[in-house]
Amino acid sequence: MHKVVIIGSGCAGNTAAIYTARAGLEPIVVKGHEVGGQLSLTTEVENFPGFPEGINGPDLIENMKKQAERFGALYRDGELVEADLSKRPFRLNLAGEWVETRTLIVASGAKARWLDLPSEQKLIGHGVSSCATCDGFFYREKKIMVVGGGDSAMEEANFLTRFGREVALVHRRDAFRASKIMLERARNNPKIKFFNNTVVEDVYDASQHLVTGVKLRNVLTNDIWERNVDGFFVAIGHIPNTAPFAGQIDLDPDGYIVSHGGARTSVTGVFHAGDVQDRTYRQAITASGAGCMAAIEAERFLEAEGH
Ligand code: NAP
């Protein structure tokens, strides 16, 4: 019987592990499918406080893990396959083995949705990004492209005009999901150029390990052309990793955990941390902060229950 099981090994899960381990709760951290979370897909992180020169994303994650292990956190490979949260202790199927736990911290994150072009996948962290806040700074006076037609794409395109010389916004239709106000703001921004009814067919140049341009196709005319870009931002939505909790924890229509205040979910003893609940900020530091909150709540909950 475990006191705390943490699902996810990104910033939220690792921070929850540091705090619960230091509280002597010997947490088990289930690393999950994307070990280390989204930071493990980035290169330089310049906005995590405490690193004036910046730090490599995977190094930051590894440091957090070492810090948690130093206090007794146990990391295990594999993912959560199935969960029974109908009664306490909770039962979790971890890659075929059932374990029991008094509390559960869900820090399983949200995956960025990608176009899934092979070239795009190879260049993630080398000019291809899903986070303008994280990576926009690297494209001062450069040519930037954003893909998507929702609020995220509009927000990212607007934000990126602070850095880039120009921002090309590519959307596969001519109708937009984005709210009117966000769309108008982008349309009125002189640095943003819209390419509607357009899809990205390829991202260059994986052989050089950096983005140099893209191949585009107009879906109405089938015209194909190339455009030079230095930074390629994909803003076509996120998918929260909550499948094993469907029907057990309150989720919103897009699958994000609905917070019941602090780090509490709809199930007593189950806490949320990071992007699995947060569709607004999605930053390493906010995920870490949320991991800390979930850990403190789990600790207080166990203490109140006499464990
Ligand atoms: P979204 O609203 O689901 O929009 C996703 C966009 O990506 C759509 O335009 C979609 O095109 C496009 N897309 C999806 N898959 C694609 C593919 N394979 N290839 C090309 N394009 C693809 O997602 P979101 O923009 O991330 O927003 C999610 C939620 O957060 C929304 O409720 C939004 O309002 C909210 N949000 C709010 C703010 C804000 O208010 N400040 C900021 C960001 C997000 P189609 O339209 O053709 O399907």
Helix content: 10-25%
- Counted by DSSP, the helix tally is 7
Which structural class is indicated by helix and strand composition?
alpha/beta
Mean pLDDT across the residues is 96
> What is the number of strand segments?
19
- Sheet of most strands: 7 strands, mixed
Helices, strands, pairings?
Blueprint: E1 2-7, H1 11-22, E2 28-30, E3 44-45, E4 55-56, H2 57-70, E5 74-76, E6 80-84, E7 90-94, E8 97-106, E9 110-112, H3 118-122, E10 128-129, H4 132-135, E11 143-147, H5 151-160, E12 166-170, H6 180-187, E13 192-195, E14 198-204, E15 213-218, E16 224-228, E17 231-234, E18 238-240, E19 270-272, H7 284-304
Helix pairs in contact: 1-2, 1-7, 5-6
The chain binds NADP nicotinamide-adenine-dinucleotide phosphate.
Report on the structure:
With 307 residues, this protein is of the alpha/beta class. It is built from 7 helices and 19 strands. Strands 1, 2, 5, 6, 7, 8 and 19 form a 7-stranded mixed sheet that branches. A 5-stranded parallel sheet has the order 10-17-11-12-13, with helices on one face. A 3-stranded antiparallel sheet has the order 14-15-16. α5 (151-160) packs parallel to α6 (180-187). The chain is elongated. The mean pLDDT is 96. Bound molecules: NADP nicotinamide-adenine-dinucleotide phosphate. The site of NADP nicotinamide-adenine-dinucleotide phosphate (NAP) has 16 residues, from α5.
Considering the chains and any ligands shown, give keywords for the structure.
alpha/beta; binds NADP nicotinamide-adenine-dinucleotide phosphate; five-stranded parallel sheet
